[in-house]
Structures are given as C-alpha cells and as structure tokens.
Inverse folding.
C-alpha cells in the first residue's frame, strides 16, 4: 500500500486533492499547513514545491505539486472509473484540466477576490464585473458540451469532471439561468459524497 501525505489546508486548492483522494478511497496523512505559513518557503516544503505554495503531495516519498497535475497523477497511479481507459481519454483528461486552468480559473478567481476576499477598500468592482463576464463566456462552452451528455468524457464521472468542477467551485453560488446544463453538471459533481466530504473539510456548511 502506498504511503500518501497531502500538504495544504483544505480551505485552499488542496480541496481538489482531498476530493480526489476521497473518491479513490485512499488513506492519507494530512499536513494542513496554511498558505500564509512562512515554513512553506523553507525546507522541507520548499524542496518538495519550489514555489513555496500548496497543495503538494508525497506518494511513497515522491513529491508533486500543481493541484490538477496531482489529481491526474493519482488517477494514473490508482486506476479507477475516474481514470483514462485509452490514450484518447488520457488526452481528453489533460485537455479539459488545462482548458479550465487557462480559460476559467484566473477570471473566476479575480471575480471572487474582488467581490469577497480582498478587504473592501482594495476591491475593484469594474474589474470584478469584467472578470465575471469573461468567465461566463467561457462557461458557455461547457454548457454547450454538457447539453448532450452527463459528464465530460465517456459518460462517466472522471478526473476531468473533478478538476473542471473544482475550478468552477465559485460558480456554485452564481445564478446562471442561461446555462442550465452547466449548472446541473456542476451540482451533480459537487453533490457526490466525496465532494461533500471535501467541502466539509474546508468548513462549508453542506
Ligand atoms: N497552480 C497552483 C496554484 C498554487 C497556489 O497558488 N496555491 C495558493 C493557495 S490556494 C498558495 O499556496 N499561495 C501562497 C503562495 O503562493 O505563497 C495549483 O493549482 O496548485
């Protein structure tokens, strides 16, 4: 049995990896270090992730950082229905994960920062509005794709759904009557028992 150590407080991108570990039913040690902890900039953490950021994971002593890459790795290392069954599916898992990271994450994050996380005096409402508009435009792509299918790949929940839904986490709280297929899929993903456990780990009331 592999020895797994996840590093990073649940109220961070580490929630994505907690969700994945729980989907796979894997036992793991959790070092819930906070992203503001200066220890992240020193050994041993900085040796495992030279960015000084969370999340990172050690599997049998081998470190890996980048939340989405960690999930793709876990899907590969511990095969399940969430994993690719063919090289084509492996390509699609990477395709959707990279698409979400490059097309949605920054704009949705900027919207959340400038509406919720930054001190009120530092928020820029125009920037928030512009960022949300850009993210929503991109989410039209998902709405279209998901209007004829339940999940992104192969008609089953895979790590692609998990990674993309995790990036779209903030969209759970946004009304989108014009994107019914996207919203139904997002709720379907985040209603999974493993997702609910991961949300509870970060303190969400679900
Ligand atoms: N693209 C990286 C982003 C990692 C990241 O920015 N993590 C934040 C917490 S969610 C962090 O540790 N910030 C502290 C810092 O960068 O100093 C990933 O998905 O893992």
């Amino acid at each position: 049995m592999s020895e797994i150590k996840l590093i990073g407080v649940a109220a961070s991108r580490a929630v994505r990896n907690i969700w994945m570990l729980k989907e796979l039913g894997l036992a793991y040690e959790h070092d819930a270090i906070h992203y503001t902890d200066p220890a992240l900039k020193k050994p041993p953490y900085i040796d495992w992730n030279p960015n000084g950021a969370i999340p990172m994971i050690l599997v049998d002593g081998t470190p890996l950082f980048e939340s989405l890459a960690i999930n793709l790795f876990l899907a590969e290392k511990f095969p399940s229905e969430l994993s690719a069954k063919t090289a084509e599916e492996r390509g699609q898992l990477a395709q959707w994960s990279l698409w979400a990271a490059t097309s949605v994450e920054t704009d949705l994050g900027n919207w959340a920062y400038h509406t919720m996380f930054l001190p009120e005096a530092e928020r820029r409402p125009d920037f928030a509005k512009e960022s949300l508009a850009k993210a929503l435009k991109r989410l039209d792509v998902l709405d279209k794709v998901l209007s004829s299918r339940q999940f992104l790949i192969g008609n089953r929940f895979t790590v692609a759904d998990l990674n993309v839904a995790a990036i779209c986490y903030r969209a759970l709280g946004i009304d989108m009557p014009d994107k019914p297929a996207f919203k139904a899929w997002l709720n379907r993903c985040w209603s999974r028992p493993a997702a609910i456990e991961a949300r509870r780990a970060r303190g969400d009331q679900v």
Remarks:
- The chain has two domains: 4-77, 87-200.
- The longest helix spans residues 125-146.
